[in-house]
Amino acid sequence: MCGIVGIYLKTKKYEKSLGKFLSGMLDNMATRGPDSAGFAIYTKENKNNFKYSICLNNFSEQDFKKKISKYFKKIKIIKYSDHVIMEMKDEPNEVIKVINEKIKEVAIVGYGKSINIFKQTGNPKDVVKKFKLSSFSGTHGIGHTRMATESAITTEGSHPYSTAEDECLVHNGSLSNHNNVRRDLIKKGQEFKSENDTEVAAGYISNKISEGNNLKNTLTSSLKNLDGFYTFIAGTKDGFALLRDEIACKPAVVAETKDYVAVASEFQAMAHLPNVNSAKIFEPKPGVVYNW
Fold it and tell me: Strand order of the sheet with strand 280-282?
């Protein structure tokens, strides 16, 4: 059992409150996933620079700056607990290669021109405070609270998973054919950093999008190609999409107002949101992709 949440702002009215809204949603899902938590915040796209979300692990910020400066110049680094957001003009292929080969002490958890990802083990309420989520602004965000089942309680096993630029996925459920899908994706050049089935689903989505499919069609195809019980929230720089498998034993609820769309495993995650009592509230249908 895990908890998933997402909120998409239709207007600019609440952009400064996005982090506060998402923070409350994750707090209220802590009982569904006490082992770890994570979230992705999307901001307006920066046309000139890329942002790299990096978990320092046990590496110090000073040592990281010293090492990365050997390879790149004009870097802006902002520290959030044991993560940093590194902003620069250098292309992802080059940056990712350097970090994976030369600075193996750290891990890239996401990158793009809009996305910021943070995740860590521990009680979700503590993780949210650790990264000061309530202080963030943005256009939309998704989050996850994890109860570990098929893989270890580690940062690598925590959600969201990001396997391509400005893409990420959170997932409640389990995939039964993830090992076969993993092998097929590796043959196509996809790389994986964990044994988690959700990373395989994220890689599947990224691979399909890279072939020219849009997010809605990609998620629709997953109903045939990903076996198991699941509810997905998949994020991109433009918004996010929601899908429950056709059996739909994993819960989800949607609340929509003129200002936002909120998604969660349980309604209690959304109870603090403004005007939620007058929202259109519904349970998403099985096997149907909803996107905003």
Answer: 115-121, 36-42, 140-146, 3-9, 260-264, 253-256, 280-282
